[in-house]
Amino acid sequence: MKTNLLLVLLVLFGFEKLFSQNDYPSPRKGTTLIKIDTAFYMFGGEVPNSKKLLFNDLRKYDPERNHWLQDPPANNPPSPRSYHSAVAYNGKMYVYGGYTNSGISNELWEYDPSSRMWSQKAITGASIPERFQHSAVLSGNYMYIVGGNNGQNILADGYKIDLNTFNATQMPLFMGGAPATNGMAATSLNNNVYFFGGNNNIGSSNQIVYYNTQYNYYSFPNSGGFQFGFGFAGAANASNNEAFIAGGSSSSKSLLHSIYKYNATTEQKILITNNIPAGEYFNVFIMHIDSISGKNFDTSFYFWGLIDYATFYKYDLATELTTQFDTISNSWITVQISSNNCDNNYFSIFPNPANEVIKIITNKTEFKIELINIFGQIVLNDYNTAEINVNGLAPGIYFLKISGNNFTKQEKIVIN
Domains, the chain, ranges and CATH? Predict the structure, then answer.
């Protein structure tokens, strides 16, 4: 009788309405979101503002049927963790590292959706140190792991793991070390691995760095990096030579609300939109081709986050419309971008470290600039300028203070 009643409910209300809202992921940060075939898989994470409350559950989203399902494994999953990394290869998910209740991990786990089985893989070859907040990306049959944090220092090394043999190789150093950065957005373009932005000991980086997987070396594009620094953005490749970079945060922890397109062939950086909800979309930004009426196709980006770490978004590239998943109706509703979501006091300060000049990009028209040394002395001051000359100042650490009507921003600057 109960079985017949369940079948009637499924027919009347559909699978989506019966199951989706109950299996919608709970609020979490430091999670991962990947795509295998047409389904999205979210694994792990931590309760916002509590590193001790970690997850090891697996949630599955089906974009064709528009519903979330909890996907319980057939055996024991990895221990709960956050700020791990995940890639998809040959229809399976590979999870590396992360922050756990027993310490920082260097484990590699494989999840097979067809059998719903987890298995830990023994890594041979190079020994990879424990890390979290690292960048990981798939290129060919290799999982590239670069940077991150070991709990004491931001890391500058990189490794690649052959996902056919699970043999690891250390990547060569770049100018004395791979970028010592965590939270770099990463993707694969033209069979090379690209890293965008990231955070280091000074602040947020504006760099674009790529690793040539054929000849095994790091390099910069000739056009340079972005005009602003950012960390913990999301990245997804739309083709073999185009990537999209979404959100992130600046050195002052201001959340960004932009999507940029980067072309690896022309090295162009184009602002696609400055009107998505501001947030850090590190490891949770996916490109997907949506089917419309079964015939036409539309490119959309899916991402998880915002300030509450509990909202699932979709940005439609053709219509430039941002929608969010509504758990009550199990449908997509239009997002109203308010001033609370946007950074009304936008500043980008670069380069850092600086040699001759410091450039300032802002949406403010009236502001005061003060450059202060470590003794609290004002060594330079100016008003409403996009550039200050620091040539001739003694090398060292300074603080750049920008202030105006109802706002003040201060950032540490290193002058070489």
Answer: 14-334 (2.120.10.80), 347-415 (2.60.40.10)
- Which of 190, 196, 192, 161 is CA-nearest to residue 281? 196
Phi and psi of 216, rounded to 5°?
A: 60, 65
Spatial CA neighbour of 229 closest among 252, 210, 262, 260: 252
CA distance 287 to 272: 14
Cβ(247)–Cβ(276) below 8 Å? yes
- The predicted-structure confidence for 220-252, as pLDDT tens digits, reads as follows 899 889 988 899 999 999 888 999 999 998 876
Is pLDDT at 38 greater than 60 in this prediction? yes
Tell me the CA distances in angstroms from 168 to 113, 143, 150, 228, one per residue in order.
Answer: 24, 9, 19, 34
**Cis preceding linkage at 63, omega within 30:** no
Place of tokens 């399976």: 92
Confidence of residue 15 (pLDDT cuts 50, 70, 90): very low
Radius of gyration of the chain (CA): 22
Whether 97 shows a pLDDT value over 50: the answer reads yes
Hey, is 2 helix, strand or coil? helix
d(CA 142, CA 258): 30
pTM of the model: 0.78
Task: Tell me if 219 sits within 8 A of 363, measured CB to CB.
Answer: no
Question: What b-and-e string marks burial along 323-342, b requiring 16 or more CB atoms within 10 Å of the CB?
Answer: bbbebeebebeebebeeebb
Q: Is 370 in contact with 412 (CB distance < 8 Å)?
A: no
The answer to whether 238 and 287 have CB atoms below 8 angstroms apart is yes
CA 140 to chain centre: 21
Distances 247 to 118, 145, 253 between C-alpha atoms, Å: 32, 21, 12
Helix (H) or strand (E) run with residue 67 in it: strand 67-70
List, in sequence order, every residue forming a beta bridge with 270; answer none if it has no partner. Answer: 261
Q: Closest Cα partner for 248 from 160, 135, 137? A: 135
Tokens linked to 48: 């916002």
CA dihedral 340, 343, 345, 347 (to 10 degrees): 170
Rounded to the nearest 5°, which phi and psi values hold at 27?
-55, 135
Whether residue 351 is preceded by a cis peptide bond, meaning omega within 30 degrees of 0, is yes
